[in-house]
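DATA SHEET
Item: assembly model
Revision: 1
Owner: S.N.
Input lines:
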Amino acid sequence: MNERAALTLLGDELAHAGDDAAVVGGQVLTTDMLHETTDFPEGTTRYTAGWRAVGASLSDVAAMGAEATAAVAVYAAPAFDDDDLLAFVAGAQDVCERVGARYVGGDLDHHAEFTVATTALGRVPDGSGATDSGTDDASPLPDVGPVRRSGARPGDVVCVTGSLGRSAAALERFDRGEDDRANDLFRFDPRVATGLAVAPHASAMMDSSDGLARSLHQLADASDCGFAIESDRVPIHDELAAVAATEPADDVLEAAITFGEDFELVFTVSRDDLPDVRTAAPVDVTVVGDVVDADVTMDDRSLADEGYDHGG
Amino acid sequence: MNERAALTLLGDELAHAGDDAAVVGGQVLTTDMLHETTDFPEGTTRYTAGWRAVGASLSDVAAMGAEATAAVAVYAAPAFDDDDLLAFVAGAQDVCERVGARYVGGDLDHHAEFTVATTALGRVPDGSGATDSGTDDASPLPDVGPVRRSGARPGDVVCVTGSLGRSAAALERFDRGEDDRANDLFRFDPRVATGLAVAPHASAMMDSSDGLARSLHQLADASDCGFAIESDRVPIHDELAAVAATEPADDVLEAAITFGEDFELVFTVSRDDLPDVRTAAPVDVTVVGDVVDADVTMDDRSLADEGYDHGG
């Protein structure tokens, strides 16, 4: 059984297991595990590992349209070197600070392979806080969260934040031994502020951690809809374009939409709301296609459900 | 650097890292990692593994005197067998149900060794909920949580819940191939209800996951005090007494106080509050000694800071 089949099984058992995070009483909770052989290429610093691992969980909070409040991590390694551990904690703290969350500690475990388990906690903005300062109690703000994967409607457009291919470019930099640049690329900004800005408008949302292609299939499954994507609208990260300058354009596009690990947001919204979304979002929002009744296509051809299988 | 030194290092960096769980805005968050070679003896069922791993995190919530609200887990294994995974989830759900929490899902990861990372979320009871139903708004309930490790005062007594040695007995049953009984013993009840009942009275609290001896040293360090324990007051689990019937009494006592993994609560309270604590707590509460100015002793001899080094 592969990971997706297993997740489907978990999903049958557990409410909302298909979303990026669970929601319990207004709290958003999500957990991930990353490890050396599949997630941290040779050359990844412990600072970057701390940033990236905690960032991956914060990205799941962002994908729910929630505020990020706190994160914890388990650091598992064959031995605990002071400098490594402090660097990891510094990376974890810095990525939390970047999104207004607090890194509040964790646990240590001996493990043959360097392995990190991270958990992020968030809070769904429910508009109830606004009544404290507002005067119009009879008309509370609408409930704006959480944003699930299941609300996309034909007629909406589908958008991505930022650009795709940053982690694919980082891998290439690691392969070339350009570790400093690779580490820079590996430390992404979780889109928490963007998720909050988009949440009042988005009909469905998730992050692109498994790649745009797979994300679209997952949104399509959850929302019982399809997507019609136009390849020339897909925003490709400058670094991917640079490292792959001699590659055929189709291969670069393929890497951008299937490599994943970019932790951008993929969301659907009505066309009428686009101007408000663009005004509110602190990063670029690009429309890559339309929500349709069925089938996931790119340039009118079927788009395969291929992407990065975490931990595979 | 061993685990305790590393945790001390984390503690220097992070507020409250010494407690069983972090507290952020009234939410209590804690995470742990368990794995096959050190935590799940041969014969441990996946149902028991799910129960025990999630239970360990719920015990940390209990040790803060908090309500347990939710838990998540990462299940990492070389392959994902349907029956194994469903059994794990069932165990995780059942232990959550036992304490009024919800198991809300998790993540899967491929890993050479069966490894589980668990996170539990709790809520500190702050008495504010009581004002909704009460009429005496001018006299709100006292803030009863969280209970930290740092409040023990000379003159208080030190108590443990339930009895010690259950996991040590389980290990012996596993060694004998008595897996059914061993699995039963391995599935403990996290002391969430007891933690909540004790919280309004306790000056310091933690769980006994590293053994009573080490817990006392950790409370002593955090509270800048000592403990004087009387060995004949230490409550020893019937099963440990049974499996070790032919062992010298000193060895049985040693196992009970150093093996750990019992997930009982160790707390300090003023002697005057003992009757109220005993009335409120749904399990037996045993006074094992006194809080003193300095030094951790048992029967007036120094008690070594020895215990189970998780992941060691």
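QC remark: Chain A touches chain B through 58 residues (CB under 8 Å).
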